[in-house]
Design brief:
By secondary structure, the protein is of the alpha/beta class. Helices cover about 50% and strands about 15% of the residues. A 6-stranded parallel beta sheet has the order 8-5-3-2-1-11, with helices on both faces. The chain is rod-shaped, with a radius of gyration of 37 Å.
Length: about 450
Amino acid sequence: MMVRLARSLVRAVVLSISALFASLILAAQPPASGAPVVYSAEVDSIIHPVSAEYMIETLEEADRTGAALVVFTLRTPGGLVDSTRDIVTKMLAARTPVAVFVGPSGARAASAGFLLTIAADVAAMAPGTHIGAAHPVAGAGEQMDETMAKKAEEDVAAYVRTLASARHRNVELATDAVRSSRAFTETEALNASPPLVDLIASDVPDLLKQLDGRTIRRFDGRTVVLKTAGARVVPIEMSLRQRVLSAIAHPNVAYLLLSLGMLGLTIELWSPGAVLPGVVGGVSLLLAFFALQLLPVNYAGLLLILLGLLLFALEIKVASYGLLTGGGLVSLVFGSMILMDSRSPELQLSLRVVLPVVLGFASIGILLVRLGLAAQRRPSVTGVNGMVGQQAQALTAIEPGMAGRVSTHGEIWQARAAESIPQGAQVHISNIEGLTLTVRKD
């Protein structure tokens, strides 16, 4: 009976798992007939390798399942040119038409986001949005000379001219966005001749409604009629790994990780064997270095921050009377001010993050200096110096030039004195020579 019941339970579990996998497979596949499928993905971050991976994976999934359209809702201050080129290359080669929608209202697609908008099969904007300001800047924080700046500008300008020309969009305005950092509102972009974007939509459902039956020309010259009426919109989310990596690739988060990492290692140096601060500090530093390689970092600022934190650590080992702490504060403040080399507010450090960190390290440094000075002023309590000034009791009479015995700290010592001291008198220790104490009357 028990065997039969066990077999029934196993069979039921197997059938349930099989049904679950079958439903998942059917849900992942678009229907063979009926409503078209539109993949929708939101990109609300800097354009870096993580966001590029997310967009490329979305395009690959759309091609694999035969989706009718991919819509990227884009809002970004810009990003890395290399990651932008990777995304554009995949967009141009994708079998699935791609629409970039700059929204919702109040959003923008600047710099790298402008290139992605121009490269899409369909470029759309929500009311109250703007695009442009695509002048290239150094991504690693170094200062470009005039020749290198001109080369970078001409390279990106040629790239955007190629994209705009193939998409039959306004080449002159697209070039101005690169060379003169011009930005355009949704009405300016749509009313230009030829326009920079194809239409204005309030949201993704409105966009799909306007695109239904619209004929678009792909990058290779093919024409496609979009069918989006009654489409089933499938949202594509970032994976957990991508969300975490994208979250730490933010200037404020990277700065906090860097500070936390150095603080953890410093505490480990103060208290060797604590383990936890060292582990947390090491992991935080590695994550910070990953984030910093995705951001426009000024390496001089980074070195100043590291120097400041190193000076804080040395304050424990070197008696500098606060000089190392002062130098560490100066290095930390100036390093934080110049760490992010970008004119975009989204890529700059916030004072609301920098000030608490600097004040926190300043408080730690001041506390350490006070503890060090207090320790130096405190009288010795061990060794020879610790016995000078302590009380003792004469066990025998002590005459000038003659040795006697005294008791102190539970020990019996030989003692000499410059005056007569009777037996049982209380005395103070004034000096120690070898194993003989010099005492005087209390």
